[in-house]
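Note to self: keep these together.
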Amino acid sequence: MKNYIGIDLGTTNSAICSFDGENLKLFKSPEQNDVTSSAIYIGKRGNRYLGMRAYDNAAKEPDNAATLFKRLMGTSTPVKLPAVNIIMTPEECSAEILRVLFGYLPEEIRNNSETGTVITVPAAFNQMQKDATMSAADLAGIGKVALMQEPVAAVMSVMRQRKGDGVFLVYDLGGGTLDIAIAESISGRVSLLAHGGIEMCGGRDFDRIIQNNIVKPWLRDKFHLPDDLSANHKYKPLISMATWVAERAKIALSSRDDVLISDPAFDAMGFKDLSGEEIYLDIPFSRSMFNDLIHEIIAESIQAARETMERAGFSPHDVERVVFIGGPTNYKPLRDRVSFELGISASTDIINPMTAVAEGAAVFAESIDWASQSRGRKSTRGTMSANGNLQLAFDFIARTPDAKSRIAVKLGGLALPDAEFQIESLDTGWSSGRMTLKDGTTVEIPLSKKGENTFKIWVFDSSGGPITMENNKIIISRTAATIDGIPASSSIGIAVLEKLGGRPSLEYLVKQGDPLPKKGKLPFKAAESLRADTSGALHFQIYEGENKYPEENRPIGELLINGTDFKEGVIRQGAELICEYEVLDSGNIRLQVTVPDIGATFEKRNLYSRQAGQIDFTDASKQIISDAEIIRGRLEAVSSKVDDPKLEQARDKLEQAASIREGEDDPEKAKKAMDDVQEAKNLLARVRNEHLKEIRQLDLDNCTAFFDSHVRQHARQTEASAFDNLARTAQRAIDNNSNDFDSNLDELRGRNFLILWRQDWFVIDRFESFAKTAYMFADKRRHAELVAVGAEAIRADDIDKLRHVMDELYSLRIGCGADDDMLTSANILRG
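Structure:
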């Protein structure tokens, strides 16, 4: 019997389930819980605990523990356990949880080479986060692995339970993320019409709000505590235990109207304040208080659900039920409010919200062709060739959720006079009886059970004797609900130049809502030459988002063709670059670039550098504050020309982001702040699209003012005249609503830069600015090396060498998305 495994690798809890084609089996933790806490605890003597015991110990001794590391996947943020002097990566932490979950399985399943495992990831996970999840699975020693988006798994689980058809909204609120899915079920076939959500939204955020608004103020009121309580390492165990107690009280509100935030385990810790007084917790907490605290978060989640419905083209009247999944949705007031404000009734289907994602993943695992490298889905069509001397085959529906299937006769040669055939079920003994063998004959056959149904086909000659066939058995799977369509959760594109020196735009591999999987081929050209065995590179910068310009979206990594990747030849400027890509069900991307000039093909392993795009969120506060200031400047400039409520929303997001203190080492706070900056950028991009003429005028005025105040004095007369003429051309493009404006503005900005780039003082000033802002560079080691080389070039008065250093610094710099960036490291052209 084949087994298929589904793993919900969660922020706070994880689960594992198997499916054999007929039955699901949930594997419980050693404590006999349906889920296993995603927590690691290492004692002072090196004893390692995972799961519930680790989670409880983590509250008492946070410096010995790792929790919530899923939120850091795909970043270079270290997970530190200072009490035992251990530093782990988020992937290593996740691998520990995967390893313990996989260990719950019987040995015959774990060691079976045919066992396939699907691990779920949030729909909001970007390419680096997905790649990190695959790395964790590899570290855990799990064999055949594929990824699946959590809302798809949730839909699979829900639709497996449902008997009726209709359109449903899946509201999946976990410990760390919110996923929304719109699904339609028709006769057991499910189409996922749209999905969305919020990456940093979950039960963990509820806990933080309770801590900041209830627990900490109460403690400060009752006890003498330091002003830097949150950052004071001495009081870290106090805060950790208080959060643990508050979370238990929060869970208790699922069944009670009023609780106390109090626990004997907290009292037993013997915490004391600055005056030596013993600290205790005894805080009244009610549903009404909790509802007020989470009101804004739930409002944002409801808005995310509405936006997802809009993308699917549905109103609340078109949706039959809201299906709730995830631990926080056990709280009835939350379900009631979401259902009421959406205007959609809540589902009464009996599903376990804590394990539904793992169950759906296991069911989905059965549909994967594990023999294929791309982990594509099994074909729904099958053919059995009789072989031998007969030109005879039987076509059939190999996979269906229906209780019936069909087998059709296909004669490739001459008809066999008076020949007959018969189909028998080897499971039940059902028989079709003898039928005339002729091309096109179709037989409807019953599928008596879920999973594999085996049939044998007999062929008889004109005298009634059996004809020997090498193959005469077929297997038809009666599946659980099948997913017909999985839409891409967001658009993913490569930054390309329209022309040399121009502003980059996105060439999309996949657009939001495109059905997955998707394959394609895109032609590009090299914007500069690259010689073999040199330090240069062609940059394939990957962005995720719906905005026009790359800098307005979220960078998710960079794929490189390095000069050191090939030993002979030159990729000349203008050389053809053929990019073949495949976007899988999970959203993972496979890339292959062929360069005919040198007769070479570069696979993903040579192109994709996840490390180059990673951020250490324990050391990102300066970058976030800098980005917020730049975007705020842009926002204020736009506000002077445009009145739009989205600008106030963007301002609120920037204020939240800017509230992070310099030196903040809490990775959750830093990541949330960076997400706020990105959302402000998204809002500004939407304002730009809706007020295009006014924003274009603002951009042109800023560009010409910059030229007049900083550049004109260094320009040759011919350059100044050419700039003025082009500015007038750009103004006419604004007046006529011409799409030529963007290319005009790109050229104006490029001329500004090239004139200044001739000035030695400008190159030195830019270098000194870059040298002081190491936080703006992903590769800190290389930044330090280049700064040293650049400083030596200044001392030697070798400004040409300094320009070469600056070229590489620009290519390494993390862009903040300012509209007036004058140089881009994108160096491939649209084909």
